[in-house]
């Protein structure tokens, strides 16, 4: 019989909410679908470019970013943006200024900047269009229930508690 490993307690602050997850997937689709993204989908081959891994300490590609989204390893859009920026910075560090891959990295970087600017603009517009409720709050967290929705509201409340709770994992 295999020995039982002790459980370690990990604290998870939160995972990305549905809106943030949708934004992450939208950005990933834009980057992945860009005509110049092919070189950024997979990690650089160690066999073909061994010096890359000497120079670049934190290699990352769109496949790794996609996996991190799927595994809920990003809590915020900013965390994903940092990885996309790192991917572009890595390409610009390794490749000569003005080379095709350097220029492609700059194009993807511009897509990132434009995406963030559009998201910020949309978020600002949404927050200014919300009018305060009678109690002076914005009403963002208010839940309106129909008779048939009571179970889903309870599930939502439980999901919020689970996201904030400590999680026990087995090593």
What is the 3D shape?
A: globular
Q: What low-confidence regions span 5 or more consecutive residues with pLDDT below 50?
A: 8-13, 131-171
How many separate helices? 7
State the strand order across the main sheet. Answer: 1-2
Structural class: mainly alpha
Largest sheet features: 2 strands, antiparallel
Task: From the alpha carbons, calculate the radius of gyration and give it in angstroms.
Answer: 21 Å
Mean pLDDT: 76
Portion of residues in beta strands equals 5-15%
Report the strand count.
2
Secondary structure layout plus pairing:
Blueprint: E1 7-11, H1 18-33, H2 38-41, H3 52-55, H4 62-70, H5 77-94, H6 100-129, H7 150-164, E2 166-170
Antiparallel strand pairs: 1-2
Structure, explained:
This protein has 171 residues and is mainly α. Strands 1-2 form a two-stranded antiparallel ribbon. The model is unreliable at 8-13 and 131-171 (pLDDT under 50). Helix 1 runs antiparallel to helix 4 and helix 1 runs antiparallel to helix 6 (100-129). It is built from 7 helices and 2 strands.
List keywords for this structure.
171 residues, mainly alpha, disordered C terminus
Summarize the structure.
The chain has helices spanning 18-33, 38-41, 52-55, 62-70, 77-94, 100-129, 150-164; strands spanning 7-11, 166-170. The protein is mainly alpha-helical and 171 residues long. The model is unreliable at 8-13 and 131-171 (pLDDT under 50).
């Amino acid at each position: 019989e295999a020995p039982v490993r002790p459980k370690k307690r990990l604290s998870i602050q939160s995972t990305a909410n549905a809106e943030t997850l949708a934004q992450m997937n939208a950005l990933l689709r834009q980057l992945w679908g860009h005509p110049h993204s092919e070189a950024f989908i997979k990690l650089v081959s160690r066999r073909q470019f061994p010096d890359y891994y000497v120079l670049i300490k934190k290699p990352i590609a769109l496949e790794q970013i996609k996996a991190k989204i799927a595994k809920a390893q990003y809590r915020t859009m900013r965390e994903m943006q940092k990885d996309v920026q790192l991917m572009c910075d890595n390409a610009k560090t390794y490749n000569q200024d003005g080379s095709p891959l350097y220029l492609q990295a700059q194009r993807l970087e511009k897509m990132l900047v434009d995406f963030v600017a559009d998201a910020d603009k949309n978020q600002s517009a949404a927050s200014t269009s919300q009018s305060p409720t009678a109690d002076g709050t914005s009403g963002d967290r208010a839940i309106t229930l129909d008779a048939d929705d009571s179970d889903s509201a309870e599930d939502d409340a439980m999901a919020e508690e689970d996201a904030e709770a400590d999680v026990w994992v087995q090593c």
